[in-house]
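fold-stage: in
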Amino acid sequence: MLAGGQGTGALGQDFHRFAKVTVFLLVAALCGLFFTQARAQNYSFSNVVVEGNDRIEPATIVKFAGIARGEAITEAGLNDAVQRIVASGLFASVDVVPSGNTLIIRVVENPTINVISFEGNRRLKDEDLSTVIQSQSRRVYSPAQAEADAAAITQAYVDAGRLAARVEPRIIERDGNRVDLVFEIREGRVTEVERLSFTGNRSFSDRRLRQVLETKQAGFLRQIIQRDTFIADRIEFDKQLLTDFYRSRGFIDFQVLSVSREFSRERDAFFLTFAVREGLSYKFGNVTAVSEYEGVDATEYRNVIRIRPGATYSPLAIDTTIARMENVALRQGVDFMNVVPRITRNERNQTLDIVFALTKGPRVFVERIDIEGNATTLDRVIRRQFRTVEGDPFNPREIRQAAERIRALDFFSTADVQARQGTAPDQVIVDVNVEEQPTGSLTFGASYSVSSGVGFNIGLSESNFLGRGQFVSVNLSAGTDNQNSSITFIEPAFLDRDLRFRLTAYYNTTDNDNAFYSTRRIGFSPSIDFPLSEFGRLELRYKIAQDELFRVSASSSALLQAEAMRGAEVSSAIGYTYSYDTRIGGLDPNSAFLFNFGQDFAGLGGDIETVTTTALARYQTRAFREELTLRAEIEGGAVFARSGDTRLLDRFTGNGKIRGFEPNGLGPRDLTVPNQDAVGGNFFAVARLEAEFPLGLPEEYGITGGLFADVGSVWGLDNTLGGTIDDDLHLRSVVGVSIFWDTALGPLRFNFSKALEKQSYDKEQSFDFTVSTRF
């Protein structure tokens, strides 16, 4: 019985548990059903009432809500309506209250912005920051937009190299539901690049690679040099510069593996390290062309190949050869030709065999060229950068080159050229989107030279005059003993062709400028130049001028006094100059050659009848892993009088031709008079050699050294006053040391020289300080 009683008790307990669970489940089901019905409850409103609005019309708020009268809507639908009203950005709070058949929408409007101000900004001006933000006065204040504007201002400071900048938007409440929006700015310090280094580079030193990058290290000129500021976006550009540098020197497998950025302990500077993989440098092997285009003979295309086997591989050489072959196809009337370079790599001897395959591409035409964003620049200025017009066969390479020409104008801060599908499968539309930038400048400056002393100048120039792509400049300069003024106008595409028209007018005077006489020159010269070949151009010019030698000292040479008695004389001359310059488009990045030859024939009316001939040949190359730059120049000139004698104003003085001598410090000289005047010569010739090399200083200082040697002379006169003037050919030779300094003010040059061979009457100048000109 005991056992049976215990079994009955256990059964009872199980029954009670079962009953409790059953009751619990029933209650849960009823509650779930209740809440489900509650959530699924539908509302329908015959009337919508808006409360709390002041400026915004009720109908606008109802439209934001998206609730139609009589439409069935759930609780979830009401919540969505609230979110839509809030998303308009016009309200600080929104509440939706169902009341029978009426829906009440209670809102609190955001205030309007009274004024917007910036506090704490010194590096970026208010007008610059105003263009960054979207918030505007007399518009509704939006906290979200204010935060977005603060982020945009912060980014503007980041772009300017101030990564520590912080911006907080604040509001000051005013009456009438208005607020003043204030952006409190803490600019922070400029984040500089403290060190630029490289790993994996074996062929070129860190110093050489730093010269390639746009980013520079910070040095003692950090207050002047702005490129030492860290800008993240510039790193990608620097990576491309490095890649282009190596690829143009035959390193076809070059890669920038990574760029590590390490913050300094003071968090005011970065240490940048470029990890690179150079690979091997390749040279050209066999280069030829084959035709896979029916009816096209490859012989003429092979004739335009200028790539020499054994030359260092360069993508530019490939691209230039393709352009030449496409020009041949254009002359032959062959359309839709694709020139495909097929490269075979020879690992053993590190050469690349190139086969230019002439293939027939798809028949695709340019439907139109759309240009947008040019508020000032005329469409035709941009359009003439294209060698392609509407209806021509589409050439992707030509479109890319046109984009580069547009950017090279320097009229636009951005220039994007893209091709897209046209209205038919065989049509392409070329979109050109540009953004204008200022193209005018007003400059004030000072200059100094050992011979002329201190000078001042002012210049006004516009490189896109009236949006026509024309250049106009006015320059005035004045020194201790000279005054110069000039006006220049250049039309780069005269008659919409590759003809550059130039017009120059000048008025120059000297007053005993290292001499015992004064000069006055006034002239006017139109010219036009055009291409004759890939690297050659020809300039044709006319010049009319009035020159005068006056105020000649009574103690000066009788030759000069006689020339002064001639008074102001008019010269009317035509001339030409042929130039051959491989600096633009040359295939070798380490070498450049320039040759100029010109003549001027005076005698088309006027008082002067002379023939003046000048020539210049200049060559530059880099050696010793491009650490050493070598330059060589040969220059000469001759002037002949077709009637009478030449004038001092027509002859050569050697000024600026041979270093180490004062202006008018060499050449034929009248030693029989107290002033011992240099009277110039009808001929001059000079050879100049120069080497530029690093001095071991940090590259960011921009200071390099140089050695130079000049040898030459000025000689020859029509009238030697019975032999009293020595006009024989006496060679002068000079050696010297140079210091080059690239500064924000321009490239400066300091020369220290010593004449090894000279005449006793020559006047030396052992030190000279000038603005440097580079080849």
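fold-stage: in (second)
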Amino acid sequence: MPKCSKHQLNLLRIAHQKAPGLHFHLVSRYFPTFLPFFYFSSFALSPNPTPRSEPEKDEDDELSVSGKIFKSGPQLGSYKLGDATFYSLIENYASSGEFRLIEHVLDRMKREGRVLVERSFILIFKACGKAHLPGEAVKFFDRMVNEFHCKQTVKSFNSVLNVIIQEGDFSDALKFYLRVFGANKMSFQPNVLTYNLIIKVLCKLGEIDRAVETFREMPLKNCNPDVFTYSTLMNGLCKERRIDEAVFLLDELQTEGCLPNPVTFNVLIDALCKNGDLSRAAKLVDNMFLKGCVPNEVTYNTLIHGLCLKGKLDKALSLLDKMVSSKCVPNEVTYGTIINGLVKQGRAEDGAHILVSMEERGHKANQYIYSSLISGLFKEGKSEDAVRVWKEMMEKGCKPNVVVYGALIDGLCREGKPDEAEEILYEMVSKGCLPNAFAYSSLMKGFFKKGDSQKAILVWKEMMSQDARHNEVCCSVLLHGLCEDGRVREALTVWKHMLSEGIKPDVVAYSSMIKGLCDAGSVDQGLKLFYEMQCQEPKSQPDVITYNILFKVLCKEGNLIRAVDLLNSMLDRGCDPDSTTCNIFLETLRERNDPCQDGRLFLDELVVRLLKRERKLAALRIVEDMLVRCLPPDASTWFRVIQKTCKPKKIQDTLDEFCKSLYGQ
């Protein structure tokens, strides 16, 4: 409701006392937007207000307050209807989203042959966007010319296009654009905003080449790209990992005399950091300063996040100091990123110091920062510090969410205190915070670790009664615990229950059951489950742990040939062996083979086969394992490793460096 000053209110009160009905004339002429307000206040303006009787239901009941004034005003002689009155009504109805009443006004204007202006339709389009009705916006756009003879311009088109895009209907937005401009019969041409919007649409649809093509045709249509055009296209290219093309666009932008803004640089810096190219990202920051474009908190946060991903925490902390010295205020994201990075590196105590610094600068930590710290401190065996951080969080009024509760429950279970963790879970439920799969599974693991499998089963049953969504994760934990405890028969019961409930076992569940069956002597049943596993969806495909379970069983039975066949199948399916795989085969070759072998030739051949499949990282891990065991690869294998993993120009440098480190020369 519009505001009215005291002076205006007094003026209208006096006018109403002298001549009832005159205030309508004054309002409609001098303060048209106050019409609804003065309808409400008409009794307050009257010196002797009398209550109205309840009116009979008629067509007036459909009208709003401003609509009733609109209809009754001319009858009282208060004012004459003008186009401005209709426009005010449309504006009022559009702001409140009353589309049915908008139709009343439009119908009246059409019958009276009144002129409709584009500005009114743009207000209607915005109302459609607010009401999440992009289809209605398109219909109103089509009716502008066909029904109301209102000239369309690029402004009304852009308004409708933006409504469709805001709803995320990118395919519909493209169709609307092509329908309007496809026939080239429009009286108007796209402007820079139109191109910015449609380039955004094409990027969202993954049509990057079409976006580039549209960008290149802009100058041909006498429409020069602006900084937002470049930024939008660069963002699309970066999302498709075409970073070099995006960097080229930055150079082109500056060549064209268009000044890049922080958003432009941030798009590229973010892409380079995610790609691990921190040196180029740092150069871009230097370029920002040279162009007089000051890095903002997003720039610094992006760089700090990139450094944390690469494990360069000291540089991240140094950048934080630089950020503060540059008078760019760090926010919760900045501190949260650094604290999380420190925790991942096993430096949770340093993270706790950063938390103190953060609070000293007036920032409050959120639940995710606390959960990261609590989890990290427990993993580092600093349970007392973790509990202290929890208590401080509660004292500071930060209400724990499901993530923080989960971190505390998991930490207590790691410390062998599942009973205390269970109390926290009950407290969590009593405060209306529903435990998630992580909380339940952590508690179950805690009881299994303590040797109390019966309590773990009770937790699972309680979870079942609360929310069936947790079944998939928790059933896997239950199966693993029961099989490790030798309770295979009960595990099979749970397995059948999972299948009957339509729950698809994941790789953990399958691997646990296979191990349980094999340990119980049912190797054939375990292999049968393994072959069934290979036909499942990706999340249930066997991993290296699954294969190692079967390698160990087959080698223990002396069935080395079948184990090697399974190893070949493993390599063919894209699963890489690990150190445990090597141990299993080496022990078998040494203890069960006649004559005894040290396994060097076996591992050497495994490296060659991995290199042939372009699995360089896996091959290097096996080579490292061979060197640790003092089983150096063959000279030809060394040559293959160097050839596959080093750039041609650096092979000699690599060999020289290796020789120096080996012989100390």
